[in-house]
Amino acid sequence: MTLRSVLAGTGAALPRTRVSNEELAQRVDTSDEWIVERTGIRFRHIAEPDETTGTLGAAAARQALEAAGLEAADIGLIIVATATPDNTFPATATKVQAMLGAPDCIAFDVAAVCSGFLYAVSVADSMLRTGAAKHALVIGSETFSRILDWEDRATCVLFGDGAGAVVLSAEDVDDDRGILATRLHAEGQYCDMLYVDGGPSTTGTVGHVRMQGREVFRHAVTNLASVLGEVLADTGLSAADVDWVVPHQANRRIIDATAKKLGLPAERVVLTVDQHANTSAASVPLALDLAVRDGRIKRGDLVVLEAMGGGFTWGAAVLRV
Ligand code: UT7
């Protein structure tokens, strides 16, 4: 028997308001044609004032708990991956804990921007396997619309808001179910390529997203292909064994190029970028939840998660569902 972190349930939450490229083009100097051709994005959800990273995260978490057949009181660990917390402090994870009515447990945020969910999954996996908790809620939740410069067409058309969540449970398994490997990376020398130009300790303001798109694109394809190769090698499996890839949903061209580099057929890749745009830390768990709920990802499938974002940070995970 091996103690592993097993996927027990998934959940998702999207803001009520959905905005199409055409609607955006009425406010911003852009076009549906440019956005679709360069990114594959068609829609994004934008949070209303009453919808926050915390409320969306809690809604996704409730769904994940229900899918896992658990109550909030069963959870011993809550990690929220976010770059857009409700407050500078306390951690949004503690706000989610309060909204769920979960009693005393471990709760904290992880900041690794678009790779945040991969970082959070890896931390939760380590903590579950060393006995810190039996059940963990790992949430990616973002309200990037609040940190976009709506005058900067090169960034504001790319992002959306939303949340995804998973319940991971520590289980003694006698097969290869659960998280089989995770890999994380960061290269801080590229921190100026994708960043927010504000913060509590510098400007005292929240700031706006700034990005050198072409550079990010170039690094993303190289880093994602490389980390996927590493994490598969860790498990002794190959691309041919993979049933589903759930990639970070930043740009369809990045997703296609990465899959091609690894020889992964496009039909095995879960795509939501057209519907959600880039929801940063929420994008992987949102896509995972969709593919679990529509029946594509089934018990026994080998699933690979990957993401890359500001820092640069990037990572990947392999799990048997
Ligand atoms: O989550 C991880 C972080 N993010 C990413 O992974 C994003 C990575 N980067 C990208 O996805 C792409 O670089 C972008 C989609 C951001 C941009 O695509 P690109 O093919 O690299 O375009 P570009 O930035 O080189 O811009 C090409 C042209 C420029 O015009 P000129 O200078 O060629 O006349 C831009 O001004 O497109 C123009 N442009 C736009 N036009 C219409 C830039 N944004 C827009 C826009 N609408 N929204």
Radius of gyration: 18 Å
Strand fraction equals 25-35%
Largest sheet: number of strands, sense, barrel closure: 5 strands, mixed
Distance between the amino and carboxyl termini: 17 Å
Count of helix runs = 10
The CATH fourth-level homologous superfamily of the largest domain: Thiolase/Chalcone synthase
The parts where pLDDT drops under 50 for at least 5 residues are none
User: Which ligands are bound?
Assistant: oxa(dethia)-CoA
Number of β-strand runs: 13
Fraction of helical residues: 25-40%
Order of helices and strands: EEHHEHEHEHEHEEEEHEHHHEE
Q: Provide the structure class.
A: alpha/beta
CATH class of the largest domain reads Alpha Beta
Main attributes of the structure:
binds oxa(dethia)-CoA; 321 residues; 13 strands; four-stranded mixed beta sheet
Textual characterization of the structure:
By secondary structure, this protein is of the alpha/beta class. The chain has 2 domains: 2-173, Peroxisomal Thiolase, Chain A, domain 1, CATH 3.40.47.10; 178-320, Peroxisomal Thiolase, Chain A, domain 1, CATH 3.40.47.10. 33% of the residues lie in helices and 27% in strands. It contains 10 helices and 13 strands. The chain has helices at 21-25, 32-39, 53-68, 92-100, 116-129, 153-156, 213-235, 252-262, 273-276, 283-293; strands spanning 2-13, 17-20, 43-46, 77-81, 106-110, 135-143, 161-173, 178-186, 194-196, 209-211, 244-247, 302-309, 313-320. Strands 1-7-6-4-5 form a 5-stranded mixed sheet, with helices on both faces. Strands 8-13-12-11 form a 4-stranded mixed sheet, with helices on both faces. A two-stranded antiparallel sheet has the order 2-3. A hairpin with a 3-residue loop joins strand 12 and strand 13 (313-320). Helix 7 (213-235) packs parallel to helix 8 (252-262). The longest helix has 23 residues, at 213-235. Bound molecules: oxa(dethia)-CoA.
